[in-house]
Each structure stands twice: as C-alpha cells, then as structure tokens.
Amino acid sequence: MELHYDITKQDYIDFNLNYFVNNAMVQRSILMTRIATAVLVLVGGTVLMYWVKGLSVLSVAVYLALAALCFFGTPWYMKRKVVKNTERILRNANNKQLCGPKTLTLREDEFELSGENEDTVYKYEAVQRTATDAGHYYIFVDEFSAVIVPFSAFADEEQKKAFYKRITAHIADEALKC
To answer: Around Cβ 163, how many Cβ atoms within 10 Å?
Structure first.
C-alpha cells in the first residue's frame, strides 16, 4: 500500500494539541501548575496585603478572583503556547522538510516515509502506540514523535481500515491502539 499526501502546518499543530490534551504527564504537570499558581496568587496576595496593612474582605476577594483566573486560564494559555511554539518551530529553516508532500509505503515487514530531504524506514515492531483525532492517525515510533497520516490520504474507508489493521498488528496492548 502506498499513500501520497501533504502535511500542512495545521497537521503539526493538531498533532501537538492532541499530545497536549491526551498525555497524562502533560496534563498532570498542567494541573500542578494551575494549583501552584492559584495558591501562590491567593496566599502571596493575602500576605502582601497583611504586611502593608491593607488586608480586607475586598482585597481577599480580589486575590481570590485572580487565583481563579490563574487556575482556569492556565489551560487556555498553555494551549495557546503550544500552537505558537509549533508555528515557531515550523518557521525555522532547519524544519522546512516537516511540511509538504509525503509518501508512506507499507511493505511486508516495514513502512517507509519519504518526502523532501526525508527517507525513513521503520519496522512495524517500532510502533509503540497509535492515536487519532478527527482528521489524523498518529503513529508513534517513540515517546514524543509520530508519523502523521491525515485521513485525506485514504481513498475510502476500506483503505483506512486496512491501514489501521496493518500498522497496529504488532501492538499487543489494545489500550495503546487508538
């Protein structure tokens, strides 16, 4: 099976957002940041107001509102930073080959991804897990990188199902399949 498709900047943004939303370590880190930031604002603000003799119900309410803003605004801010950083990485001249036309060739024991300045061969056993979103398959070949395959690469649902079955055949744990 041979698939021809284009990878766009939006495909890379979608991949990074998918990783951001679905990775347990990332989500735990964000939760810890949310809690720490909110506590720091609330406690720090209250202590500051106490030291300057300005502690009142109003000042506590203001810092409580700021702490809530920090707690609930952090995921939005972090998601925005993921998008901005992905765009910055893709603008870098060394990463120009990430976007553009790609060919993914499935062979009996391996698959090959080729494109501009790129020709990488992977054994099916190298596939650690798969993920999906509304428009892509992500074939993880290590913890942080994946081969992005947009659904537009498939001629029909049958080809899409055959691809999925073949790419996940060597993943023993069903939880690691999308």
So the answer is: 20
